[in-house]
Amino acid sequence: MTTTAPAPVPTAAPARRGRLTPYWLLLPGILWLLLFFVAPLVYQASTSVQTGSLEDGYRVTWHFATYWDALAQYYPQFLRSVGYATAATVLCLVLGYPLAYLIAFKAGRWRNLLMVLVVAPFFTSFLIRTLAWKTILSDGGPVVSALDALHVLGLTDALGVTEGHRLLATPLAVVCGLTYNFLPFMILPLYTSLERIDGRLHEAAGDLYARPLTTFRHVTFPLSMPGVVAGTLLTFIPASGDYINAELLGSPDQKMIGNVVQSQFLRVLDYPTAAALSFILMAAILAMVTVYLRRAGTEDVV
Fold first, then answer.
1. Rounded Cα distance, 155 and 269, in Å
2. Are 137 and 143 in contact (CB under 8 A)?
3. Rg (Cα) of the chain, in Å, rounded?
4. How far is residue 287's CA from residue 276's CA, in Å, rounded to a whole number?
5. Is the pTM higher than 0.90?
6. Number of other residues whose CB lies within 10 A of the CB of residue 252
7. What does the pLDDT look like over 23-60, one tens digit per residue?
8. Residues 6+ positions from 177 with CB-CB distance below 8 Å
9. Phi/psi of residue 5, each to 5°?
10. Pick from 276, 291, 296: nearest CA to 49
């Protein structure tokens, strides 16, 4: 009578290595964030509580009063940045949603061409695009002449968004520049969200005698909310910290907080104030985004 040897018991090492594989895959990304995000953030936090001068050097003295002084001195620029970014975000949504809807449901074989046209501005420098708007909105340009002939500039002057029947160096010019430069950031997530909607839902709404407007209100727009949330965030966050549009299309009266931070870092050389302003802006944006996401919902945000 022969007996067979028992099969060897498998060790737990392969299973353990399998569980660790996702973490090894995440390691390069974690190292990248630590090196290029967390480390500069810590250094900037240290800079914001330093005192001294460029000649004598700066040292950490935990001078938190810099935050209050910076906020008390530059709060108009903070409020202006939030106002301009909000206006640009609303305009991007109003302009971008119909275009995204058209591309998703009506474009047909022209869909790819329209998407290329949406992203085509990205192939040109941000600075060049803004300088082009400076030419478009120039005082002797056709845009100003046409709006003046239609008496639109008189109305915008009364509303306080333009001044002296001109567009350059006014709040309207800065908001127009922000809207143009960040419009693709609104259209792309809106298109992605709308394109996922099953067309049979629209057919079902029509079979139930729902009018097109009713179908949009109760079917299309609610299902596209992830794209709306993502698009507004991708537009508002960079717009609130932008300084190129205010620098080229505005005047000193339209300076945003990004212009102040840039000036404090590169011209005034007041590094603690510049770092404090950067942290205040980041904290304010984080607080507003948190409130917005809680009210809008974050499920399936693309």
1. 41
2. yes
3. 26
4. 16
5. no
6. 8
7. 888 899 999 999 999 999 999 999 999 998 888 888 99
8. 130, 133, 245, 248, 249
9. -70, 140
10. 276
